[in-house]
Amino acid sequence: MRDETITGETVPVPESGYNFAYLDEGAKRMIRRAILKAVAVPGYQVPFASREMPMPYGWGTGGIQVTASILKPEDTLKVIDQGSDDTTNAVSIRRFFAKTAGVATTEKTEEANIIQTRHRIPEKPLSEDQIIVLQVPIPEPLRWLEPREVETRRMHALSDYGVMHVKLYEDISRHGRITTNYDYPVMVNGRHIMAPSPTPKFDNPKMGNMPALQLFGAGREKRIYAIPPHTEVKSLDFEDHPFSIQAWDEPCALCGAEEVFMDEVILDDQGGSMFVCSDSDFCQRRRDAGHKGPAVEGDDT
Amino acid sequence: MYVAVKGGEKAIDNAHRLLAEDRRGNPDVPELTIDQIREQLKLSIDRVMTEGSLYDRDLAALAIKQARGDLIEAIFLIRAYRTTLPRFGYSQPVETSDMVLDRRISATFKDLPGGQVLGPTFDYTHRLLDFMLAAEGKEIDAPETVETDTDETPRVLEILARNGLMEPPDGIETDGRSEAEKADVGDLTRDPLSFPTNRDLRLQNLARGDEGFLLAMGYSTQRGYGRNHPFAGEIRFGTVSVEFVPEELGFPIEIGEIEMTECDMVNAFAGSAEAAPQFTRGYGLTFGHCERKAMSMALVDRALRSKELGEPADAPAQDEEFVLSHSDNIQATGFVEHLKLPHYVDFQSELAMVRRMRAEFFGEDDDASTAEAAE
User: Fold this and answer.
1) Helix (H, G, I), strand (E, B) or coil at A218
2) Residues A283, A290, A293, A298: which is the catalytic one?
3) Options 3.40.50.11310, 3.40.630.30, 3.40.50.2300, 3.20.20.220; which CATH number does A25-142+178-235 get?
C-alpha cells in the first residue's frame, strides 16, 4: 500500500480554501522528485503520478503541475500560448495561478522567473535565472513510429533509434525534404531522442545550450522530462540534408522584426494577409521602442 | 487596419456568464434542486460516482447540475475535486458476499439458494413512453419487499468452486507472483501506470473507465474479436458496509454503507498443459447501480486475462495497452477537445511548407511567402 503522510508547512490561500498553487504538498514533492530525476538524465521521460487537475487533459495539465510544484510565493509567472499572453488558454492558466497561488504575473519575458508556455519559446533569449515550462501533449518522439509504450521504452533504453533516421530518410527520398515542421525530434546530450513538444522547429535551436532550465510536463501521458541549462540539443538531420528552420520573406507588419516566427493574419477574403510576430510581448515592446513595420509606416498613432 | 487579437480575458468572463445563463434556462421554470437530482436521477448519480471515483451523492448531484446534465463533464468536476482531498488511508476490502441485496440474478442456474431477486430493473419493461409520467404527481403502487438472508445466499461462483469447476478468485496460478506481491494492491491514482500491468491495476483502470468505451469493448468480444464464451454467473446489487482500520485503534470499524453493483462473469476455459479444464472469471464492480458498466467491465477484465491463461491475444479488447490507455473518458475528452485550442504556430509551419512544395510542384521559383534558411 502506498500512502502519503500529510505534513505541515502548507501555506493556505485565504480565498480559495485550496493549498498554495492547488496541489497538496505531498503531490508537489512527488513531482519535484520526478523533475530532479529528469534534470539528472536530460531528455529521458520520467513517469510520474500525474494528478487530476481542474483543467482538461490536453490543455496544459502537465505544465500546470510542473509549474505548481516549483512555484514559490515570491515568483513572477508569465504564461503564453502560441507565443501570446492573451490567448484564452494562457489567460485561463495565468488566472488559475493568480487565484490559487497569489503570485505576481507579467507579460514581460525578462520579468518572469517562471514562464509556462504552449508551442513557443519567447524570441528574447532566456537567462540562467529563469525556468521555462513547456506543456506537452505526446511526450514520446517515437510514438508515430511505434504505438506501444513497452516497445518505445525499450528503444530508448537501447538507443535503438534507427527507425527514426529511416523515417527522416524516407521523407527526403519522397519529398526532397524532412516534412516535420513542428515537434521536430532532437537528440539531447547525445543520448536521448526527445520530443520538443509541438513547438515549431524554428524554436529548436533555442533549446540548445539555453542558459535557462527547460522543463516539460505531459499530464495525460504522466511524463516529465527536462533539458538542464547549457545542454547540447541537436535537431536530427543528415550531413547532406542539414536541419533548417522556417524564415519569412517579409518582416513583421507591425514592428518590422525579421528572423522571428510569424503568424499569418488573414485580412480579407481576396487572399490578402500579413505576417506579424507570434511572440506578442516581443512585438509590443519593439513597437513601444518606436520600431515600425510596413503596415504602420507613416502612421503616427 | 489590423487589430491585434486582444480581449481574451473579457471573452472568457462573458462566456462564463453565458454558460450560467444557459444552465439556468428559462427563469420562469423552477430551478432544479440538488435533492431532486439526487433522488430522481439516481442512475446518473451512480455513473458519476463510479467514473468519478468518489462516493458522494450530493456532490455528484451538484456536479450534474453544474454540468447541465453532461455526465462526462460532471465526472470531470468530481475527479478534479477528489484529487484535492487528503488521503487518510485505504479501507478494508469490501465484502460483497455480505451485501444486503436489492437485486441478485444468475443466468447460469434456473434456481439456486437465495433465489433470483429481480429488484428494480428495466429488464422486463416494455420501452413504451409513459405519457402519464409527463403529468406530475402520478401515484405509485407500493412494491412488496422481501428480506434476503445473506447467509442463505451463497455466491454462484463459490458453488462452482466447491466442485473444482471454477478457478480460485485470484486466478489460476500462472503469473509467478508471490502471495505478498499479490497482496500489495496498486493504485494508479498514486503511481503512473506502466506496462505490462497486473490484474489489480487493470481492474482499477476499468472501474474508473468510461461506460460507453467498456460497453463497446465488451461487445466486441461477443462478436468474435477475442471471444471468451461468457455467462452472467451472478449479478448483485445492494448495500455493503465499508470498514477502516484507524492506526490508533488497530482494529476495523464500520465507517458507512455504500451501494454497489457486482458482476461475476463465468467463462469457459479449455485448460492447458498445467491447468485442468475449468471455468474462469471476469469481474466487474461499480458504485451504485451501474449494471451495464459492471457487466462490460467483467467482459473486458476476462479479455485482458488472455495472456495469463495462455490464450491467443490478438483482438483489441485483449490488448491491455490499447484498452487501458484509452478507457478514461476524462483523459480522452480532454485530448480530443484540446483541438479547439489555437494551433496557429504549428499550422503556420505546415502552411509554409505546403506552399513551398506547391511552388516546386508547379515549377515556380521560390516566390512563396516563406523560405527555408539554413540554421
Assistant:
1) strand
2) A283
3) 3.40.50.11310
Give yes or no for a contact between A82 and A119, defined as CB atoms under 8 angstroms apart: yes
pTM of the model: 0.85
Shortest alpha-carbon distance between residue B346 and chain A (Å): 6
Q: Hey, are the CB atoms on A220 and B334 less than 8 Å from each other?
A: yes
Is the CB of A57 less than 8 angstroms away from the CB of B331? yes
Helix B329-337 / helix B71-82 crossing angle, nearest 10 deg? 110
Q: Any idea where the domains of chain A sit in the sequence?
A: 25-142+178-235, 247-296
Q: B334 and A120: CB-CB below 8 Å?
A: no
pLDDT digits (tens, 9 = 90+) for B319-328: 999 999 999 9
- What is the DSSP-derived secondary structure letter of residue A294? T
Yes or no, beta carbons of B86 and A220 under 8 Å apart: no
Q: What is the CA radius of gyration of chain B?
A: 26
CA distance A105 to chain B (A): 14
- Report ipTM (2 d.p.): 0.77
- Nearest chain B residue to A20 by CA: give it: B84
**CB-CB contact of B253 with B282 (8 Å):** no
- Name residues 136-195 of chain A within 8 A of B (Cβ): 137, 147-150, 175-177, 179, 181-183
pLDDT tens-digit map of A156-171: 999 999 999 999 999 9
User: Radius of gyration over alpha carbons of chain A, in Å?
Assistant: 20
